[in-house]
Design goal:
alpha/beta; single chain; 5 helices; rod-shaped; Rossmann fold; eight-stranded mixed sheet
Length: about 260
Amino acid sequence: MKARKKIPTKRAVKSESPKNAAKRKPTAKRQLKPAKTAKPKVENPKPKRAPKKTVPKKPLKKKPAKEAPVLQTPREAKKALRQELRSKIETLRGKATKSQALCDAIIRHPAWRKASCVAIFAPMEIEPNVELLWEHAQGKVICYPLMRMGGLDFISVNGPDSLVVGPWGVREPVMDQSRVIPPTEIDFMLIPGFGFCPDGRRLGRGGGFYDRLLSTPGMRTWKLAAAFQCQVLKNLPTEPHDRRVHRIVTEKGFVPKPA
C-alpha cells in the first residue's frame, strides 16, 4: 500500500474575546528623547586675580662651623700658665705676712731641725721671702744656687748680703770654688716655682735648671717647695723631664699629700 502524504494543516488561531481585548491596554509608541544640545560657554564675569608676587626668600645664614680647639703643647701650656700665675701673685696682698707664716711652718718641721746643710734661693718679688730663715740658721751651712750654662752650682755664703745680681736678673752668690757644695751633701733644699700640685708636680721658672739638678745620680736631698697658697693647683702640664718635690709649704702650712 502506498503511504498517504501528510497534508499540512493551518494552525488554528485562537480568537480573542471582546472582553480580553477591552482589558488590554494599547501599547504606547516609544518616544525618543531629544538629543542634548551643548550649552554655550559663558565667560566668567569675575575678573581674574593678578598673580601673587613671589618674594624671594632670604637665604638662610649658615652657622659658622665650630673650629676644632687648638691643642697646646705642654711647653705652650706651661708658658701660658706662668703668665696667669704671675699676674695672680703680683696682685696678692700681705706677701710679707704670708712669707713669715711660711717660714714659721718650716722651722717647726723635723727635717729643718735635723738638717746641717740647707740650700735656699734668692726670692724674686713674686716669691715668698724664704731668707727670713736666716734668723733660725744657727749651726747650719746655708748655700745658694749659682746659675751656669746647663746647670746649677751651690755656693755657701755667710749671709744674704753676700749675693749680687747675676746675668739672669736674680741675686746669686759669687763663684768661689772653695765654697762649692756638692748636691749630694745637701740634705734640705728649698725649691722655687710658679705652681705646684699636692702630689709634688712642679711648674718651674722655665729654665729647667732644677729639673736637671734633681736628676743628679745619688742625690738624696729632701726637696721642699716654698710657695703661696694661690700657687697650689689641682693639675699642671708636665713633660717627661719634669721632677717632683717631696712636699709643699705655704702660709697655711704643709700641703697634705694625696691619699
